[in-house]
Amino acid sequence: MIDLYCERTVTGLWGEPLNTLSNIAFFIAAWTIWRQARRNDRVDASLGLLLVLLLAIGTGSTLFHMFANAWSEWLDVIPITLFQLAFITLYLRRVAGLSLLPLSALLAIFLAASVAASHYPQLINGSAGYLPSLIFLSGMGLYHYRSRKNGPWLLLGAAALFLVSLILRSIDNAVCAALPMGTHLFWHLFNGGVLYLTLRAYMDNTRRFHRGEQV
Question: What secondary structure does DSSP assign to 115-143, as a single string?
Answer without folding.
Answer: HHHHT-TTGGGGTGGGHHHHHHHHHHHHH
